[in-house]
Amino acid sequence: MRKWLCVAALLALPLVVYWPTITHEYGFRDDYSTLREAHERPGWLMQLTTSSGRPVYGALLQASLSEVDQVAELTMLRALSALLAGVVGVLLWRQLRRSGWSELQAGAVGVGVMLLPGMQVVVGWAIAWPIAVALIVALLGFLLVERGMHNAGRLGPVCVAAGTALYFIAGLTYQTSALFAIVPIAAALLLRPETTARNDAQWIIVHIGTVFAALFAGFLVMNLVFTEGGVQEMARMRIEPHPFIKLLWFARNPLPNSIALFALRDMLATPPWFWIVFAGVVAIIVLGFFYGASTAQQRLRWLFVALLLPFVAHSVSLAASSQAIGYRTLLPLAGLYLVLAMFGLRAIVARFRLPRLAESGALAAVLVTAAVLAWHNASTLIAEPQGNEWALIEAAASRMQLTSETRVYLIRPSMESRSTQRVYADEYGSLTSDADWAAKEMFKAAIRERFPDGLPAGMDYLLTTGFGPPPPVGYDLVVDLRELKHMGERAPAETTAAER
Question: Quick check: pTM over 0.85?
Answer without folding.
Answer: yes
